[in-house]
Amino acid sequence: MYAAHYPALVRLAYLTTGSLAAAEDVAQEAFIEWFRRGDQVREPLPFLRRAVVSRCTSWVRRRRLERRHATALPEPVQRHPDGDTEVVRAALQKLKPRQRAAVFMRFYLDLPEAQIAAALGCRPGTVKSLLHRALTAIKEDLDVD
Hints:
The structure is a single chain. This protein has helices at 2-17, 20-36, 44-69, 86-93, 97-108, 113-120, 124-142. By secondary structure, it is mainly alpha-helical. The termini are far apart. Keywords: DNA-binding, Sigma factor, Transcription, Transcription regulation. Residues 87-137 form the RNA polymerase sigma factor 70 region 4 type domain. One of its GO terms (biological process) is DNA-templated transcription initiation. Belongs to the sigma-70 factor family. ECF subfamily.
């Protein structure tokens, strides 16, 4: 289970947080939580996705608060786990965390809206709205017609 799904969960977390180190930590924490609750979890993969999204949202909120109170320091150069171009990556980073997570699960993991909704803790209609707004923002950012 771990070897099969860890890379995809790290990619999901990375796309949401923008930090490979944080993404790896979040994925590890999700697996630890699943291990602790092993007998209570009927479907591990949806549980892990939901745990990753929840932890990423908390990480992004905490990071925003830290940035608000920190002095301006240059961002360190990050390693990128996949081959996406910098332009697309920058456009994705401008999205809200839930939008990034929805885009990742839909277009990278090829999940149906119902599974995305379960991972995000919302209704399928909300997923459609998140995806529509995210794609509109990406198109505007990339200046695509």
